Amino acid sequence: MKQIAILGFGVVGAGIPAILEKNAESVTRAVGEPVRVKYILDLREFPDSPYGDRVIHDIAPILADPEIEVVCEAMGGSHPAFEFSLRCLEAKKSVVTSNKEVVANFGDRLLAAAAANGVSYLFEASVGGGIPLIRPFMTSLACDRITEFCGIVNGTTNYILTKMREEGREFDDVLAEAQALGYAERDPSADIDGIDAKRKLAILTALATGILPENDELAALSLRGISVRDLEAASLCGGRLKLVARMRRVNEKIEAYVCPMIVPDAHPLAHVEGVYNAVSFTSPATGDILYYGRGAGRYPTAGALVSDAAAILSGAAAHEAKPVFRREAGAILPFSEVRSDFYIRASGLLDPEEALSAVSEAVEVLSAKDGVCELVAKDCCLSALDAAAPGAVKIRILR
Amino acid sequence: MKQIAILGFGVVGAGIPAILEKNAESVTRAVGEPVRVKYILDLREFPDSPYGDRVIHDIAPILADPEIEVVCEAMGGSHPAFEFSLRCLEAKKSVVTSNKEVVANFGDRLLAAAAANGVSYLFEASVGGGIPLIRPFMTSLACDRITEFCGIVNGTTNYILTKMREEGREFDDVLAEAQALGYAERDPSADIDGIDAKRKLAILTALATGILPENDELAALSLRGISVRDLEAASLCGGRLKLVARMRRVNEKIEAYVCPMIVPDAHPLAHVEGVYNAVSFTSPATGDILYYGRGAGRYPTAGALVSDAAAILSGAAAHEAKPVFRREAGAILPFSEVRSDFYIRASGLLDPEEALSAVSEAVEVLSAKDGVCELVAKDCCLSALDAAAPGAVKIRILR
Predict the structure, then answer these.
(1) Which end of chain A is more exposed for a tag (fewer CB within 10 A), N or C?
(2) Which residue of B has its CA nearest to A32?
(3) In chain A, whose CA is at the least distance from the CA of B265?
(4) A2-130+298-319: CATH homologous superfamily?
């Protein structure tokens, strides 16, 4: 019998004992013996839960108990999740987490602490919920080199964009409905302003390049202000509008940002709809690979925590390649200098094609009527475009 | 320095030293030391290859050399690939393979031999080329239970169907072009008759259920005889025609077959085009997950062999959950009894709706003119349909 501890008994944390019970047979087979939850650290009491008797309010017993090899951190927020994770690792207990905020902010320090103490810090559940994404990234692709990726890593915003497109409804309307249905938080900023997606971008960028970007090095554009008109523009360009997390190595720099992009219909990411997530990776040997699945939810996320815990308890994780994250100032190219194709909608410009030809070698007019011109400008950067067409709507096109 | 041996220096085998050279840095990091090819077993000589001096024609030196921990089998065909693999395992050398024919026919015996000798038999490269599919299946999903999957696992047939749909050209025409371009073999039966897809179906079924089906227990329908008319019918049903490998657990039985199916547009598999492959898995905790990428080709496939070899050489594979394949007669439901929704095109039936209502509770007429009727019949089986509408075209619809 193996004993584990859970930090945080919220949506995800409470899913862990449920998965351990439901999948007891396969967990036992994977680990070699049964797995049981011994402690649940939470500020609250859970008198009605069958696991209520395991709830404690102090981390000390977990740190002191030699039976605990693995701690599952599902607290959310940076603090005290970071401090608790660090103390667990220093007490030579492996930590598995679904907390993308902690991994994005402190992944470098926590991985270093894990390595220094001969234990593991695993975070499969922090990106893409239940989609096995990080382990294949670390093991199967260990002998390859990820040169770029693009992903839909936030289900709430993808749900909103899908509804807007399918039903022709505006952003505020669909957001209000999503909040009423519980798909979006009462304060939706983390999702719709790209904050959540940016954390996942930071983690994937660090896995692909070794460099964990600082929060303020990554641009994240909000979905606020996106209109049905923009979705129609995407359609005019032969694609769909998606909130995309994008990383690309260009020369010696790294492009990494989150923004609404027009994804061409031929790209598999264009067909990821509703609350689904997907990430597409490119590497020289393997070409393009895409992983798709439910990016959130109690059971997918708790399932990913359990599989990380099982990898440790079975002994496999100790032999897996371990990521090392470092900080490197100046590695990330400023967002305004990242070159893309752009869809542009300009009104009032006397000759938009002429105005843009100075900043892009290929400008194609899609439509022009009533003083509004829609164009595609290839391979240019935002800073130049902003100077040439200051008031225009500009949406990047994924290539 | 770790030394490996390669069996078969064809398209895939010759990719292995290329990948080891190109990705030397990441391979060394993953394994802990550099990896070098010591022997290449092939009947031919390769005087112009930089690896020509390592070519041997007898397996004995490989079996006898204590430096060889891993043998990469890329021979193709059942014999002598099976016998050579078995002898390597019995000599306590791990084997990694891209040879789906051997895994589908002898996977049970080779996995048992690996277990008996304390070594590994890995076959990531046998399904989905370079897409990391089997390792996530075995590790990340080890704590879950795969209840069904469906996949596009043959790039040649998917390329043909994509071209037929996009260009409105008939099967024979597109096949001839694919052969001229080298995308299809001169004898295309293994691809277009579903034989290759059936081998991958057998392997995935065994991974999901533990039961390796016998070749004659699995139905595989050919793509021969599919016409542009059938692709238009798929469109009429709101989907695209694909050659699908499908497995589903139903009660105590396993449904497993390869056949052309209409995949609804809302299913991500519908948008897998050209030579790409994808497999979608369903499990209770995780929901649906899909893996997508290049299913064949020298570098993706050789890359998968190298990553399997690296997993062994780093010591990680020894701790991974190992599949056990067993045979179980009668576990697979006969194809004619597998219930599906069907698209049906019947001519000459006096009242096709009436004729089909006896075998399906929900029949919907899509069109009826010039004595030809197109219908959808829900939840019925082929044996009953064949009796009710003997001469009609019948295509399964994926649900």
Answers:
(1) N
(2) B321
(3) A271
(4) NAD(P)-binding Rossmann-like Domain (3.40.50.720)
Interchain CB distance below 8 Å, A285 and B292: no
Smallest Cβ–Cβ distance between A285 and the set B23, B135, B288 belongs to: B23
Query: pTM for this one?
Result: 0.93
**Run of H or E including A149:** strand A148-152
Alpha carbons B307 and B35: distance in angstroms, whole number: 12
CA dist B329 and B326 (Å) reads 10
Distance from CA of A350 to the nearest CA of B (A): 40
Residue in chain A closest to B16 (alpha carbons) equals A285
> From the candidates B92, B200, B369, B378, which is the catalytic residue?
B200
A-chain CB neighbours of B287 within 8 Å are 130, 293-294, 297, 299-300
- Encoded tokens for B146: 């795969």
Q: Which strand ranges, in their side-by-side order, compose the sheet holding A68-73?
A: A55-56, A35-41, A2-7, A68-73, A94-97, A121-122
Would you name the residues of A annotated as active-site residues?
A: 200
Closest-CA residue to A366 (of A332, A340, A393): A393
User: What are the residue boundaries of the structural domains of chain B, listed by start?
Assistant: 2-129+298-319, 148-294, 339-397
Cβ-contact B133, B110 below 8 angstroms: no
3-state secondary structure B2-63: EEEEEECCCCCCCHHHHHHHHCHHHHHHHHCCCEEEEEEECCCCCCCCCCHHHEECCCHHHH
Which residue among A27, A136, A292 sits closest to B143, beta carbon to beta carbon?
A27
Which A residues 257-286 touch B at CB under 8 Å? Answer: 266, 268, 270-273, 278, 280, 284-286
> How many residue contacts between A and B have a Cβ separation below 8 Å?
190
Chain A contact set for B272 (CB, 8 A): 268
**How far B192 CA lies from chain A's nearest CA (Å)?**
24
Tell me, yes or no, if A246 comes closer than 8 A to chain B by beta carbon: no
CATH number for the domain formed by residue range(s) B2-129+298-319:
3.40.50.720
For residue B383 the two structure tokens come to 């044996």
Pick the CATH number of A148-293 from 3.40.50.300, 3.40.47.10, 3.40.640.10, 3.30.360.10: 3.30.360.10
> Which of A16, A139, A277 best tests the B interface by mutation, with the highest count of B CBs <10 A?
A139
CA distance A45 to A53: 9
Q: Which of residues 8-37 of B touch A (CB under 8 A)?
A: 19, 22-23, 26-27, 29-30
Q: Is the peptide bond before B61 cis (omega within 30 degrees of 0)?
A: no
Distance CA B394, CA B262 (A): 11
Give the pLDDT of chain B (399 residues) as one tens digit per residue. Answer: 999 999 999 999 999 999 999 999 989 988 999 999 999 999 999 999 999 999 999 999 999 999 999 999 999 999 999 999 999 999 999 999 999 999 999 999 999 999 999 999 999 999 998 898 898 888 777 788 899 999 999 999 999 999 999 999 999 999 999 999 888 889 999 999 999 999 999 999 999 999 999 999 999 999 999 999 999 999 999 999 999 999 999 988 999 999 999 999 999 999 999 999 999 999 888 889 999 998 888 999 999 999 999 999 998 888 887 899 999 999 999 999 999 999 999 987 778 788 888 899 899 999 988 889 999 999 999 999 999 998 899 999 998
Q: For domain B148-294, which CATH number applies: 3.90.180.10, 3.30.1390.20, 3.30.360.10, 3.40.47.10?
A: 3.30.360.10
Strand, coil or helix: B299: helix
Does B138 touch chain A if contact means CB atoms closer than 8 Å?
no
Amino acid at B369: K
The minimal CB distance from A135 to the residues B131, B139, B310 is found for B139
